[in-house]
Design goal:
Length: 264
């Protein structure tokens, strides 16, 4: 008889304590990495370990002061993982977790909690490009380009050396290391020819410490380079061809004479 009352009392107590956990509690948040490259998947884990009792709760993932996702957590579980697929730059922000026995919390969460800041690193960033020298490009000239990033540049894992592309008319021409502390890279087109004319742009790849598959991109800041045809260059080029033909002809003659000599 005594035993039954104790059990009943315990049950009743559990019910009241359950209904009274309706207010929100903060949970811990864990992330594998706090900087993540654009288009990859972000995994965030909310942990109620050491915080909740053996009860089923709803875990809410919050960004800023709003919750953006929720999941049921069974009474024997203490970790709930949320996945945000193919993150964009707008996914950067402060994330946190709360839990409640209620599954219908208002979207604005006022409970004080410890957030973590997630930074999404862009894959391509247009850089400022200028023609370092010469300003008036003629055929045969070496054209030097200077790419500069103004403003803060966040890279994956605080990488110091990333890649940058020199592009013409939206195709990649050259790949170069971009020194993040120095914030600049130089490119050179050696011996420009007329078909090097076009719109040049420069991009940096803050999320890539190593080179990956090539990709075309629309650069923002462009500089127009017009290579002027030079008569002397043309003449030299044609002289070279003529000289080569004479040499070839001579070689053929010699070979033929030699062959005749062997035959007789
Ligand atoms: C549980 O919460 C209710 C109001 O929601 C309150 O009246 C009651 O006293 C609380 N019980 C305990 C044990 O805190
Ligand atoms: C995240 O929080 C930090 C400080 O807690 C603050 O400096 C930063 O601006 C916040 N980021 C966003 C995107 O709100
Ligand atoms: C790029 O060229 C400029 C001069 O045009 C020079 O001052 C600078 O040091 C060069 N930067 C690198 C990274 O080579
Ligand atoms: C690039 O575009 C310009 C004009 O838009 C054009 O004159 C030039 O021929 C193009 N160059 C290449 C290599 O496609």
């Amino acid at each position: 008889m005594n035993m039954i009352t104790i059990i009943l009392w315990a049950l009743a107590n559990q019910v009241t304590s359950q209904t009274n956990v309706t207010d929100i509690s903060s949970a811990n948040i864990l992330a594998q990495q706090k900087t993540i490259s654009e288009n990859s998947d972000l995994y965030l884990t909310c942990s109620t370990f050491g915080k909740k009792k053996q009860i089923q709760v709803t875990v809410y993932l919050c960004k800023g002061d709003l919750w953006i996702d929720k999941k049921l957590q069974k009474q024997d579980r203490y970790e709930t993982t949320f996945t945000i697929q193919r993150v964009g730059l707008h996914h950067s922000g402060n994330y946190s977790c709360v839990y409640s026995t209620r599954g219908d919390l208002p979207t604005k969460v006022t409970k004080k909690r410890e957030p973590i800041e997630i930074v999404v690193i862009s894959n391509f960033l247009p850089a400022d490009i200028s023609v370092a020298a010469p300003s008036d490009v003629h055929e045969g000239d070496d054209v030097a380009f200077r790419c500069i990033v103004s403003g803060p540049l966040q890279t994956l894992g605080e990488c110091q050396l990333i890649h940058s592309y020199l592009m013409r008319n939206q195709t990649i021409l050259q790949v170069q290391a971009f020194n993040v502390p120095g914030m600049e890279a130089n490119f050179t087109i050696e011996g420009a020819v007329v078909r090097d004319s076009g719109h040049y742009s420069c991009v940096v790849l803050p999320s890539k410490c190593i080179q990956e598959g090539e990709k075309t991109l629309y650069g923002n800041n462009r500089v127009l380079v017009e290579v002027k045809e030079s008569l002397i260059f043309r003449l030299i080029a044609s002289f070279r061809v003529i000289a080569l033909m004479i040499l070839l002809g001579l070689g053929l003659c010699l070979w033929w004479i030699n062959k005749q000599g062997i035959r007789t």
